[in-house]
Automatic annotation (TrEMBL):
Pfam families given in the database record: Phage_integrase (PF00589)
Protein known as: Integrase
Domain named Tyr recombinase: residues: 136-325
Organism: Streptosporangium lutulentum
Superkingdom of origin organism: Bacteria
UniProtKB keywords: DNA recombination, DNA-binding
Gene3D superfamilies: 1.10.150.130, Intergrase catalytic core
């Protein structure tokens, strides 16, 4: 019959036009299945994990595209002998599994499971031996430390920028990438403080409000206004710029944000402070001020069931509601 086709697997005849529509829909469905948006940081991390996997298979002499339980178990043992921290090994293992699947490898479900058990065993072994690996979790930045860092910064253009990075970042419990991606128009000054629009984060866009500060050195509104006025920011340009000596050179990177924070900390003798210290610091300070879980999660863009946030709050709660209190010890 002219202009008609028989659908494969059925006896119904349809027009060529309808068949073409269904074919396009199938293509879109396949694209949807494959679509997984990833940040540049995630892509870099996966590429790094894959390079580690390539070193592993070359060293032990197994096929590159091996997705068996033995391959993953051996990977943990191999990385452990290299002295890698358990958290690093787990990240490498997960990244390698993702890359293997993208290459069409049928990763055995027991592979990552066996590897996780081996990682848990490594954690216990290291604990029994009293050995610490990795830099550990970033310490929470306290309000007193934030004040010290901010006050010590010079009133130069770079110093004003770094003070704004510190106070705005702390107030919104920002990730480094969120600060790096802010545009000038995303930071709005109001009578009550700052309204900040974070365009993209792990939990999507968010718009935290930062109340006007009580202390001049930790007030995000004052710090932002001083930086914006001194730098004559373009409303459509980046909120924070990088410097080459004393000259502004365009948008700052997430790494640049981290360098600014670490530099301000080192200037006052604080060790181990990173960009993540601000997120931990806001969470713990807010909990100490009796704010509830939901309020803190919304401010920092944490998922409702965030394990990381639960850990931050437990640090405070373990003293507020302690089993050894009031028992006559």
């Amino acid at each position: 019959m002219t202009g008609e086709l028989e659908l494969q697997g059925g006896g119904e005849l349809v027009s060529a036009e309808d068949a073409a529509r269904w074919a396009r829909l199938v293509e879109l469905d396949e694209l949807a299945e494959e679509f997984e948006p990833r940040s540049e940081n995630t892509l870099r991390s996966y590429a790094s994990d894959w390079r580690v996997w390539e070193r592993y298979i070359a060293d032990v002499g197994i096929p590159l595209e091996a997705g068996t339980p033995g391959a993953f178990f051996g990977f943990v043992i191999w990385r452990g002998k290299e002295g890698a921290a358990p958290s690093t090994i787990q990240r490498n293992m997960y990244g390698a599994a993702v890359c293997l699947r993208e290459r069409g490898v049928d990763v055995h479900p027991n592979g990552p499971k066996k590897a996780k058990k081996a990682i848990d065993a490594l954690v216990r072994m290291l604990a029994e031996a009293g050995e610490e690996r990795g830099r550990g979790k970033a310490p929470a930045l306290t309000m007193m430390q934030l004040r010290m860092m901010s006050k010590a910064l010079p009133d130069t253009l770079k110093g004003l920028r770094d003070r704004a990075i510190l106070t705005v970042g702390f107030g919104m419990a920002a990730r480094r990438s969120e600060l790096a991606n802010l545009r000038t128009r995303d930071v709005v000054v109001t009578e009550k403080g700052l309204q900040v629009f974070a365009r993209y984060g792990k939990t999507g866009a968010r718009s935290p409000a930062i109340k006007k500060g009580e202390n001049e050195w930790t007030c995000a509104q004052r710090a932002w206004q001083a930086w914006a006025a001194a730098s004559d920011l373009d409303p459509d340009g980046p909120a924070f710029q990088r410097f080459n000596r004393h000259k502004m050179m365009g948008p700052i990177s997430a790494q640049g944000i981290g360098i600014a924070i670490a530099g301000a900390a080192e200037a006052v003798g604080l060790v181990g402070i990173t960009g993540h210290s601000m997120r931990a610091g806001l969470a713990t300070a807010a909990r100490e001020a009796k704010h509830d879980y939901r309020t803190i999660a919304e401010q920092g863009g944490w998922a409702p069931n965030s394990t990381a946030l639960h850990e931050y709050l437990r640090i405070v709660d373990q003293w507020a509601d302690n089993a050894t209190a009031g028992i006559g010890m």
